[in-house]
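Journal club prep — side note

Before the paper discussion, L.F. wants everyone to see what a predicted structure for a comparable chain looks like in token form. Sequence:
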Amino acid sequence: MNTIKAFIDECGTNDLKTQKDGNLDLFISVAILVPEETYPQINEQMQEIINKVAGGHLKSNNIRANHSRRLQILQKIQDVPFGYYACVVDKTAIYEDSGLAYKRSFYKFISQKIYRTLGTSICDLEIYMDELGGPDFQETFKEYLKRKGLPNLFTNFTHRFVKDENYPLIQLADFIAGTLSYCFEPQRKSEYSLQFRHLLQNKETDIDFWPLRQQDKTTPVPDNSFDEQIYSLVINNAINLETNMRKEHMTTDDVALLKVLRILLFNKLYEDDKVITAQNLQQKLSLQNIDVSENDISRKILPQLRDYGIIISGTAKGYRLATTLKQVQDYISHNKDIIFPMLKRLNIARQKIKLATANRLDIINEITERKLSDILNIEKEREQFEP
């Protein structure tokens, strides 16, 4: 059994009063993941980089909005063979008077979510976290995670609180968490955000966001654009499905379906909303040890999501949640270009056989329900009357 070492640090605080000056909307926790057997070399490589770019101690808060320097460091770490998992917590979607308003409860709850996610894919996990609170809290924290952090009986993990100055990969987790905040945090976004995101995605094994926020239902604007209503409908349907699908015991197909849905949601809510190809989706799933083919994604997973009422715009360029009238129309146009030629070819075969059998055999009636025959008859009439 291969052991994975995870080094965890975060950006942001547990303070839910996000309207206060200087308090960020997001809390972002990052786990740097490396195999035990390659850890010594990776640790040494990262320490050499930190010595050169940060004088021996890398901390995102020391770099702040010096974006050119942040870019230089991101480019330096591209050759370091690690992956990372990130959990983005939207504090604006958490009630200020909830139990998570308390620091201990907040950190325990979020850490439990992270450990359960990691433990689902990793059976033997060693966790190193930057020191948090005093010795008493650290002991209660570890006991809580033993009870709540394991996804199943087959997962083993150990947990250690350590000083970040002795662990270059914890400093890397701090740096990546801070950089992600410059990608997603409304107060920190800039013209550099897309460059940061592009460089970080090369190392990303998975990224989660919590909690999912239902969109307010709105009415059309005066120019009869229905974009607002379509957006809230599609996002809320996707969030409801994601919430209802999550359960203790999930099949491999369920996990793949849920992951694809979450990728599409994250792309719509936090990313630049560019289309995602089946190859991109397959690569993201493979990084999470989910073995599906591009064909499975195109012909099985995405159609099943559509069967659940999730409107996904699919073109030759890729896929995304369709949340504007134009995106829905693009999806319909793309399907029309596929469906009508298929129906035409099917109708040609049907007519040839009817002619050869003196109208005694209609293959559509033999192998399908009457509905398809009706559709083909309508399509034939449409062709006859088209100019």
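L.F.'s comment for the group: The longest strand covers residues 26-35. Keep this in mind when we get to the figures.
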